[in-house]
Amino acid sequence: MISSTPQGSPASKLALVEPGSTGSQTSPLSVDGVAAAGPNLSQRPGNRTPLAWRADLSAAIALRFARACPDEQRAFLANTDHVVDGHYTTDGFAALLAVLRPDVACRYEDILLSAAGVGCFGVWHTWRGFAIDRIVQHLARPGSPVAGAFRSVTNEQQLTLARYQWLLENAESVIENTGGYRDLYEAEMSTVQQEIDSALRGAIQRDIRCDVGLSTVTTTTPLHRITLDTLAGAFRVLHVHDSAAGFLYCYHDRIESWCELLTTRPPQRRDLRPLRDALRRREPEHDGASWHADPPDTPTPQLYFGPWCEPAGGQTTRELRPSRLQPAHVAAAVVTFFATPIR
Length: 343
Fold this sequence. Notes:
Layout: E1 15-16, E2 29-31, E3 40-41, H1 58-67, H2 70-77, E4 82-84, H3 90-100, H4 102-107, H5 109-121, H6 127-137, H7 156-169, H8 171-176, H9 186-203, E5 205-209, E6 214-219, H10 225-232, E7 236-243, E8 246-253, H11 273-282, E9 290-293, E10 302-306, H12 327-339
Parallel strand pairs: 1-4, 2-3, 2-4, 6-7
Antiparallel strand pairs: 5-6, 7-8, 8-10, 9-10
Helix pairs in contact: 1-3, 1-5, 3-5, 5-6, 9-10
């Protein structure tokens, strides 16, 4: 358990616990997720966040809670005595920090929101935001300067709690001494920065169809997902990789259309499986590969040509195989699909 909020705050009674923990008679405050019951601070689908505190990021929602008057906080929390977040994210860390250590979160608000934006939406904001997001994500991996703190953790749920506890206790170190963790982000940051710079110099082709909210991005090299989404200019993204082996295709809906956002309205999601079926009729399975699509309730559903694998653990890339279809045919099929009204 951990509770760092000053005793004068209504949140001072809250303890961060592992989801599903017993011993409490009250429903938890769920942060950056949606528990079955109890107060909720999240932008995820089905959330129960009070309208006055809603925002695009759970971190921003929690910061609004932290700045609310004590009576509002007390009424919202009711008898809740514990807080949970069942999945480990940078947005979740920043939101928990705002609830349990609001003095620290408010002091570093801009940096935390930048990091949460990188982690949640997968787009470039600032170098420090990217760095902090990757520090959070890779905190316990081999080679991390603090990996030893998690060596005795035996399962994923305990690891989530242990990493959050460490981050809450060491938040200032991560934010102010980012360079001390450079091995967790430096190489990947260099890749993204080089790709963005190369793209801005004309290394990518981008065709935006505003009528269907689609961006088709064509490259001769692979792209980091953050580079792709930062430069796409739309929430529906088709990446065409003109590789030495042939054309590789992967479409995805960005996660913004899965979240309940306040400041923007991405196009409504469509079930991609009818489009998959249409492409399969044009190109039957060959060489162990076929057209596949995720259901629309997946956070970032993909349509791609390659071998099937489950989108486990927040996976954003699949193995792609060369397709026999030409880019113009695939792009036209995608445009036609989105331009056709839902029956």
